[in-house]
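Incident log, structure service

09:12 report received: a user says their structure output differs between two submissions of the same chain.
09:20 pulled the input from the user's history:
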Amino acid sequence: MTTAVLWFRRDLRLSDHPALLAAATEADEVLPLFVLDDALRGPSGAPRLAFLYRCLRELEDRTDGRLRVLTGDPEQVVPRVAREVGLPVASSWNLGVPQNADAAVREGILDVVLISSDHAPYGRARDERVRAALEGTPLTTSGSPYGVTPGSLRKDDGTPYRVYTPFARAWRARGLRSPAQRPDALRWTDGGLGTDGVPADPDLGDIVLPEAGEPAALQTFQEFRERAVASYAEARNLPATPGTSVMSAYLKYGCIHPRTMHAALGDTEGERTYGGELIWRDFYADVLWHQPGSARWDLTAQLTGLEYDEGPDADAHFQAWASGRTGFPIVDAGMRQLLGEAWMHNRVRMIVGSFLTKDLHLAWQRGARHFMQHLRDGDLASNQHGWQWIAGTGTDASPYFRVFNPVKQGKDYDADGEYVRRWVPELRELTGKAVHEPWTLPGGPPNGYPLPIVDHSAERLESLRRYEGVKQ
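09:34 re-ran on a clean worker, output below:
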């Protein structure tokens, strides 16, 4: 009897899962494995860890309790699992085992460890170390967490895309495969191995996370299609309106494959716009694949010398921003939503990001780290490159001098102040657009709400001055 070890990572589902389909096709039984890697858990905040753990418990239930959750370095854990379940070791290669491991797997000769590919810098390096440590057992990749695998789309001259629109055009021209078929019958095994089990959730305080796992992902996406996709093109920019899909955390952990989502979308304006947002996710993953250093450093080398504020005053500004006490209501509402829901509306992410980088003159990396600590959907490629887009150091075709006016943004996208009043209770007695400029009231902001910590007009000019200093 042959055994395939299916090492789950960012693919915590059973449907549209090429590696699972390959495992069921090539082996008599499948051992599901998840490795709790402290190199990834360490930088994760409590919301992201709690959501992961709940996804794992749901997956454990649907693998008949056979999911082995082991803690440690994958370079040591995965080969140990392979040895303990009797998969071939290095000595097998000297006993007539075919040298072409992938061909041997297809012929049913070898047992195998199967994975979906990982394209982040750490994941790529980790998988190469595990592949080397496995020695005689092949580590075989099937599928990826993206619609189009990062690194596979290039311009006619062979160079990678740096701008979204031509990337999206090439993405659409290439098209997608149909979702992978779910195996009709699966024989799960635990291989006689023990399990460390899924850890208890970290303390979330008052944060309530959405239901985790594949069934919840499929149901949430279906409800979005029925509820909001028709109006998505307009409503996606209105933070007080439930006009977005809220699918990002499910995509982060692969509770649903984006290919499944694309396949369910039609050709209305809302569906095309939503499909474009999924392509943005592929685009940012592609940028990170080609430029792994962009997780920490500016993509636009010209701006690496841009002046950012540091020191006690800068730290005080950062704390005011992080706690939602800047005196700019739309900014503070967004930061308080982040603390209250471990999520933030995308339009507001752009507003608060612009405020941090252009009004407070703080490095985008500080904001990116804060988001990764507090978001339930924190994804390295999307988060870092979203921040670089906001800061003007990344893939945006527009220049650095686009600076969001937080008052205008609030009036444009939260016209009656509903979103602000939801998250800034000090201002709930105010009506209409007055909520966006409480410092103009005769008595100033009510209920102890702070005055603005900066003058936006002055700081915009200062941002432009700093840009002029490096653009040459």
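09:41 both user submissions now match this output. Likely a transient worker issue. Closing.
09:42 reviewer note: Residues 269-290 form the longest helix (22 residues). The beta strands are 3-8, 29-36, 68-71, 112-115, 139-141.
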